[in-house]
Amino acid sequence: MPVADHPGRRPAGSESRLRPVGDGDAEPHYRVVHGYRRAYRIAGDGPAVVLIHGIGDSSATWAGLMPGLARRYTVIAPDLLGHGMSDKPRADYSVAAYANGIRDLLGALGIERATLIGHSFGGGVAMQFAYQFPERTERLVLVSTGGVGAEVNPALRAVSLPGADLMLSALTLPGMRWQTRAFAGLMRLLGTDLGQDATELLHLVDALPDATSRSAFIRTLRAVVDWRGQVVTMLDRCYLAEGMPTLLIWGDRDSVVPERHAHRAHDAMPGSRLEIFAGVGHFPFHTEPVRFLALVEDFIESTSPADWNAERWRELLRAGRPGTRGGRPDDAHHRAVERDLRDASERSAT
């Protein structure tokens, strides 16, 4: 269904107004793109905001946030290929491929530019989208995002190993379900960081009901994680985000991607804002939805959309990362930066 055909929708950029959002507004819709069915939810009026979920999750994760955002914005929450109700083919599940998929779905819906909100792996997809298609990106909100350092929850490293499908299958067995939930309860009682996220992570396992879903999950994970941790970084090109309004949101008890990655990303992204949720894990928009919504709305309303300029982009590329001279490293600074990049990751997303 094209955006222009959505009942009551005004063109992007027209005056915003508050209105109630019915439960049916965010029901799943479907588009066939490149022969594959893509599921997405859409609601509201006004400038476009795209919500991108993480690995193993789906657009349903944004259910509590969409009605609030839809009072002012056109909100689109896709199920990434291989996730939710979208098709799960044997396909390219890389970060760059997902960025292309977001572009193509938005093109099919008639949306030229958008603010992107990405969670975890979805944050990496949002950042990659901004890198590949800066002219189509108005703002970035990166929530507990991947791609900033090698560290990641050991369970995800384990799933990247051979035999992961059998392990995931075993977790769905009745006896194992009881044991894993008991373990999650113990982690909460002990007050561990993992206890903050264990229930949410187990829900992701429950969302993998068959071999096809598990295969898509594993292929997606292996595109960004191996046994040593995350293998994709955005740090080597964060300087290109200059002029891109960016908000980073993190929980200080995130057991999946540690809080220190938030500060690393903040330092690497010129002009970015950083908000830390105290006592919160990997899903701040679930734990404190009211605060999260208020932050996002204030960020969008208080910033102007990025004004991408091809000549400025060329200048940044030619100058290279901060600490380089005409693309050639300044030796002392280069050694420090390269050490951080080696510690964070081994290769980029392209």
Question: Would you spell out the secondary-structure blueprint of this structure?
Answer:
Blueprint: E1 28-33, E2 36-43, E3 48-52, H1 66-69, E4 74-78, H2 95-108, E5 114-119, H3 121-132, E6 137-143, H4 154-159, H5 164-171, H6 174-189, H7 193-206, H8 211-222, E7 225-226, E8 229-230, E9 232-233, E10 246-251, H9 260-268, E11 273-277, H10 284-287, H11 289-302, H12 310-319, E12 324-325, E13 328-329, H13 331-344, E14 347-348
Parallel strand pairs: 3-4, 3-5, 5-6, 6-10, 9-14, 10-11
Antiparallel strand pairs: 1-2, 2-4, 7-8, 12-13
Strand sequence of the main sheet, in spatial order?
1-2-4-3-5-6-10-11
How many helices? The count is: 13
Model regions low in confidence, pLDDT < 50 over at least 5 residues: 1-24, 329-337, 344-350
Distance between the termini: 31 Å
Structural class: alpha/beta
Outline: globular
Beta-strand percentage range: 15-25%
Main sheet attributes: strand count, strand direction, barrel closure: 8 strands, mixed
Strands, total number: 14
| H and E string | EEEHEHEHEHHHHHEEEEHEHHHEEHE
Q: What would you report as the Rg, rounded to the nearest angstrom?
A: 20 Å
What is the residue-averaged pLDDT?
A: 79
The level of helicity is 25-40%
